[in-house]
Q: What sequence folds into this?
């Protein structure tokens, strides 16, 4: 059973516009959510995170929104740049006896068109 | 520089020939983990370790072994590799504190023929 779902496999946006990447989860015990970015031939790198006690966290062009009642989070990138083209993974942690474990979604491939 | 180092980066092997992929981190992290990435399946956890001598199965442990004899090292062992283990493998480390980020290695591209 997939606990972290990224239902859209890909997204294409124009440079300068907003990119919105969505993520849903099923385990209500998750209390931290993280986004990772991955370029080809490299390991994933941490981008931004949010605690379940917050509904928004912002870092420069990147903002993550959390809707706990809907078990939904989204990553907004504004403005989008060609260098943002990558695979984005949503991850969640928490739950009984699993404070450290990260559960990942399948990833979304973002393409930013110049 | 804080980093997670995997070796080798690329490996082609034959079915049944035992191999080990090494992983080392220099951040004194308690938690280490192995993932495999396959098209359409994302990152799936193979094994993880909360600390020295403490390991547990992830979501796809079949065909793999791990050991954690030292805090910095977490090797992944394939005793008898099969073609369905052809994949891109990532090692990661983090602290055991809630909500902390994981640091990933560069990946190991394994092909089993």
A:
């Amino acid at each position: 059973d997939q606990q972290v779902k990224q239902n859209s496999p890909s997204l294409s946006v124009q440079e300068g516009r907003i990119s919105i990447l969505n993520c849903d989860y099923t385990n209500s015990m998750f209390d931290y959510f993280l986004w990772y970015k991955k370029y080809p031939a490299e390991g994933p790198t941490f981008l931004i995170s949010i605690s379940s006690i917050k509904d928004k966290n912002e870092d420069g062009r990147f903002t993550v929104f959390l809707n706990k009642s809907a078990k939904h989070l989204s990553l907004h990138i504004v403005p989008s740049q060609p260098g943002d083209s990558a695979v984005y993974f949503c991850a969640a942690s928490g739950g009984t006896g699993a404070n450290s474990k990260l559960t990942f979604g399948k990833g979304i491939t973002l393409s930013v068109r110049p | 520089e804080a980093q997670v180092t995997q070796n080798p980066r690329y490996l082609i092997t034959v079915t049944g020939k035992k191999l080990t992929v090494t992983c080392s981190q220099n951040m004194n992290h308690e938690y280490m983990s192995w993932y495999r990435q396959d098209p359409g399946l994302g990152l799936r956890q193979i094994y993880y370790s909360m600390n020295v001598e403490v390991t547990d199965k992830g979501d796809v442990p079949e065909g793999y072994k791990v050991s954690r004899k030292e805090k910095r090292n977490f090797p992944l062992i394939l005793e008898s590799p099969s073609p369905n283990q052809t994949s891109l493998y990532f090692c990661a480390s983090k602290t055991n504190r809630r909500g902390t980020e994981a640091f990933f290695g560069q990946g190991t591209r394994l092909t089993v023929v």
User: Anything to note?
Assistant: The mean pLDDT of chain B is 94. Chain B has no helices and eleven strands. Chain B touches chain A at residues 4, 30-31, 33, 35, 40-45, 48, 50, 90, 92, 94-99, 101-107 (CB under 8 Å).
